[in-house]
Amino acid sequence: MDTTELLAHPVRLRIVHALRGDREMTTTELCARLPDTSKATVYRHVDLLQHGGVLEVASEQRVRGAVERRYRLRQENASISAAAAAALTPDDHRRAFAIAMTALAAEFGAYLDRPGADPAGDLVGYRQHAIWLSPAELTDLIGELRAAILPRLGHTPAPDRTQHLLSPILFPIGDSRSSSR
């Protein structure tokens, strides 16, 4: 299974999200992170991601007679290349978008179900803005967003840090021919 197929599942995508930022987790910890997903499902998808090269075993230890594995993300294998994305058909993009939105909705639901969830206090946002941009302005905006996000992708867990899921979505909603009206 190639990376595109591996990441094209909401549970596997959520596992990848959980392990971003140099995190290491056991399947038990991943199950706690995905409380709406059965333990068997989490184990099956961790196994697929490991065999597909997206996850690797960071360490092993014996716990009550069983081997407990800590997994980490292989960053270089955890994203879809620009060439692979360009090769997707419109239907492939529809499916990928639906999977990403399903994973996002599940993550948000799991957040809201946690005791003490406080969307206002946690500065949760899900705003949408319709903006008019020329091709040059769009290129500038993408560069500015990358410049703001990239330095923070390398942050590792720390006592004063909470992991957040940031999902920028950008696509044209109108025909460019109508922009002069």
What does this structure look like?
The chain has helices spanning 3-7, 10-19, 27-33, 39-51, 82-86, 90-113, 135-153, and strands spanning 24-26, 55-63, 66-73. It is mainly alpha-helical and 181 residues long. A hairpin with a 2-residue loop joins strand 2 and strand 3 (66-73). It holds the Pfam family HTH_20.
Offer a concise description of the structure:
Residues 2-85 form the HTH arsR-type domain. With 181 residues, the protein is mainly α. It has helices at 3-7, 10-19, 27-33, 39-51, 82-86, 90-113, 135-153, and strands spanning 24-26, 55-63, 66-73.
Structural topology:
Blueprint: H1 3-7, H2 10-19, E1 24-26, H3 27-33, H4 39-51, E2 55-63, E3 66-73, H5 82-86, H6 90-113, H7 135-153
Antiparallel strand pairs: 1-3, 2-3
Low-confidence stretches: none
Mean pLDDT: 91
- Beta strand count: 3
Give the overall shape, derived from the CA principal axes: globular
Oligomer: single chain
Radius of gyration computed on alpha carbons = 19 Å
By secondary-structure content and strand pairing, the structural class works out as mainly alpha
Biggest sheet features: 3 strands, antiparallel
